[in-house]
Amino acid sequence: MATDTDSETVTPDVAQFSTDTSSREEALLWVDDHLKWLMTIPAVLILFSLTFYPLLRALQFSTQSYLPTGTVFVGVENYVQLLSDGAFLNSLVVTAKFVGIAVGVEFILGFAMALVLNKKIKVRGLWQTLILIPMILSPTVIGLIWRLMYAPNGLLDFIAAPLTGGANVGWISETSVALYSVILTDIWQWTPLVVLVLFAGLQSVPDDISEAAVMDGASRRQRFMHITLPYLKSLIVLILIIRLVDALRVFAKVFILTRGGPSDATNVISMEMYRTAFRFNNFGEASAMAVSLLVLVLILAMSFVNIANVEFGS
User: Fold this and answer.
1) What is the pLDDT of residue 1?
2) What is the rounded end-to-end Cα distance, in angstroms, of the chain?
3) 79, 109, 143: which is the final residue of a domain?
4) Domain that holds residue 66
5) Where are the transmembrane segments (predicted)?
6) Average pLDDT for consecutive 10-residue bins of the chain (314 residues)?
């Protein structure tokens, strides 16, 4: 039979055990409630180290001038100098021409090819596979392949011989042709991405709505304008933003094909940043170019979304 003394000695142990159990349960409940956020910590750390930290460093570099004796804080002077830098302003014009032509042709050509593939054509699977081949190759490999094709007396000169009388065109050596040659290479590589995205969107358009429109007497053009396009609007804006951002930062193909020449005819912004940083050792101004390009990309992307009135989260 337990005595009062035994009860007094057991009660504190039971209370301590109960407190420990309660604390452990609260900790487990907290972990369970916040587990989804805890699981994202490694990804956030990697994202910060690979994206936000370099961005912060670029902002820091853009406010400094690098001298043989060390760095000097110059504030926004590097940004002001860009406004009067002829090479940078020329690179803006070249980049705008590159982006406008390349992205425009890729979208139109890709949309047309997606519409053709959406029909029940023969060996559609084979065509889909062949179309996607350029997209899976690296820009370096593509640049080397097309550099061989653009070489004097190369494949393209042979194809164009009936029009040129056998003379070399100078695909990447003539200032009037070089930029369009680089654009052609970009179109060949990235049109398949537009085809892939828009073809997937076309496959998701409900057949019953199109069939109902046909029964109501809607023409093919009316079905395309009032059924197909509204369903694809968000995808169209998305693919245009993706291609716009990627085209603005094109570098590998230009570097391999032309090095920005001849006579700066293909000197896009990324190429000018490379020259400024590693040829002239002006890392401050090169960083200012990079930050300016980032701001330009954000403005253009937001403008696309606002003009199209698209909400990707809906």
Assistant:
1) 45
2) 71
3) 79
4) 2-79
5) 37-56, 98-117, 129-149, 187-206, 227-245, 288-308
6) 48 58 73 76 86 88 83 91 93 95 96 88 80 88 93 90 86 94 95 93 84 82 86 90 92 94 93 92 92 90 78 56
**In contact, 98 and 179? CB cutoff 8 Å:** yes
Query: Domain boundary residue among 79, 95, 129?
Result: 79
Pair 228, 96 in one domain: yes
Please give the tally of structural domains in the chain: 2
What pLDDT was estimated at residue 193? Answer: 94
Task: Find the radius of gyration of the CA atoms of the chain.
Answer: 30
Alpha-carbon distance of 254 to 267, in angstroms, equals 8
pLDDT on residue 312: 58
Q: 39 with 172, same domain?
A: no
177 and 161 in a common domain: yes
How many residues would you count in the chain? 314
What are the start-end ranges of the H helices in the chain?
4-38, 41-47, 53-62, 77-82, 86-118, 124-136, 139-150, 155-164, 178-203, 207-215, 220-223, 229-248, 252-257, 269-274, 283-308
Determine contact, residues 80/289, Cβ cutoff 8 Å: no
Which pair of tokens denotes residue 272?
A: 């000018």
pLDDT at residue 163, rounded to an integer:
86
